[in-house]
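Request: Give me one sample?
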Amino acid sequence: MELSQVIKERRTIKDFTGQAVPDELLERALEAGLWAQNHRLTQPWRFAILGESTKARLAQNFPKIATKPVVVAVSCLRSDGGEQEREDYAAVACAIQNIQLEAWNAGLGMQWSSGKMATGPHLYELLQLHTEREFVVGLLFFGFPLEIPPARARKPLAEVSKRLP
């Protein structure tokens, strides 16, 4: 598929079929994240692929997790807390976009969740993360789409851009 087609056709998928996600497809998607731009080549992203036991423990507090075929927690290494940390967070967001586009290209749907489920202390404990060393950016849910929602309207470029002299 052409890159511009993948970008325009990609959708956030919240409901998945019961079909198992092959490890090769998941790894191919995650590897695409490694190629995201990152200031000073810090490579600040970390990926934790949740096994069934860990996923079940998380589902005790958030039952909808049980319906997600694959769950990957994405975290960002902490730095100085200033400009570099902002750059690193942006790099992780770029990595997630790469991952989502590669997953879509491979026929996988994905949802990036960054709400309460992905930020509470329960998750840090479950993932054995130390808050002084890294912070969770979100949970990625992967699977084969049950259905693909239609595209939602976007503002025209002219509405969100300007040219300066």
The first strand starts at residue 45 and ends at 49. The radius of gyration is 17 Å. The chain has a mean pLDDT of 95. The chain has one domain: 3-160.
